Amino acid sequence: MSKRDWRKLDESDVRVRPGKGTRPRSKRRPEHADAESAMVIGVDRGRWTCALDNDVVVTAMRARELGRTPVVVGDQVGIVGDTSGQPDTLARIVRVEERTSVLRRTADDTDPFERVVVANASQLIMVVALADPPPRTGFIDRCLVAAYAGGLEPVLCLTKSDLASADSLLALYTELDVPVIVTRFDEEPAELRARLSDTVSCLIGHSGVGKSTLVNRLVPDANRAVGVVSGVGKGRHTSTQAVALRLPDGGWVVDTPGIRSFGLAHITPDDIVKAFPDFAEAAEECPPGCGHLGAPEDPGCMLDELVPDAPGRLISLRRLLASRAGMDDYTD
């Protein structure tokens, strides 16, 4: 171009490319109406294993628009992308459906950070050994509290009944009407299998109580690692991550890692009382901040008015409240 041609140019001839941030971004997000429904059955380092409604299992990542939305085992999600389930394929989780129940715990009673163990389970199966290791009522009480507060039905599963009787332990929970299943090593867990059929159930318990042994019998191809009890009466951790396993007769069982502590810092006394309809109405008349433990801790508790009508249930309820307040014999 000659100098004469350059002189004919003005600012209208200059094309300026807009920089980043000058183009308005739409806040609208795709609705993903074509997303396929799936259930999260495993989580591992930023990847989620999901079972589609047609039984195809896919690996997925969390879509950017979900941000840091927590996605846990049991969540019902919407998935787009490659849902073939072929090796080295990756889909995207674009939606997390509202949860019907949530099992939460904290590391201890002072930890403000709650951890979601499993979502959308209908039952919490508390696996407790009658011996080797011995049962801990504090752990059972805390699991009951978490189940009632999270909307799960608690079920007490007692293992190793060939080593000790269940009578004394069961006497503590008669007033709570908690379903009980008793198993032993040399018998098939037929009653437990029937209880789990066509539901999503979560198994929880200390290491060494026989939880993985039960899972291997319920799901023969699960191949969950089985450990032994240490010399100090505590089990060694064998399961390291929660995983949902499909039952041969229908339904899912979520096997969780053996735990040593079950904090309840996220649960209030009122959360527990709400699980007992015969006490909830009276509790509404209690003074603000009432822990519902009765005198001397809570001298104005209105639940005392119900003692003549339901003394056993009130004692059981207050044992759970005491467990929530750290006033139990639960040890790490």
Largest sheet: 6 strands, mixed
Q: Give the tally of β-strands.
A: 13
SSE order in H/E notation?
HEEEEEEEEHEHEHEHEEHHH
Major beta sheet, strand line-up: 10-9-8-11-13-12
Secondary structure: helix percent: 10-25%
In angstroms, what separates the terminal alpha carbons? 84 Å
Strand content: 15-25%
What is the radius of gyration?
Answer: 27 Å
Question: Which class of secondary structure composition applies to the elements?
Answer: alpha/beta
Mean of pLDDT? 85
Shape: globular
Low-confidence stretches: 227-239
Write up what this structure looks like.
This protein has about 325 residues and is α/β, with parallel strands linked by helices. The chain has eight helices and 13 strands. It is globular and about 105 Å long. The N and C termini lie far apart (about 85 Å).
What are the defining features of this structure?
332 residues; alpha/beta; six-stranded mixed beta sheet; five-stranded mixed beta barrel; 8 helices; 20% helix; 22% strand; globular
Summary of the model, kept short:
The protein has 332 residues and is an alpha/beta fold. It has eight helices and 13 strands.
List the helices and strands and how they pair.
Layout (H helix, E strand, L loop, with lengths): L2 H5 L28 E9 L2 E6 L4 E6 L13 E6 L9 E6 L5 E5 L7 E6 L3 E7 L7 H14 L2 E7 L7 H5 L8 E3 L7 H7 L3 E5 L6 H8 L24 E4 L5 E4 L13 H5 L3 H7 L27 H14 L8
Parallel strand pairs: 3-5, 8-9, 8-11, 9-10, 11-13
Antiparallel strand pairs: 1-2, 1-4, 2-3, 4-5, 6-7, 12-13
Helix pairs in contact: 2-8
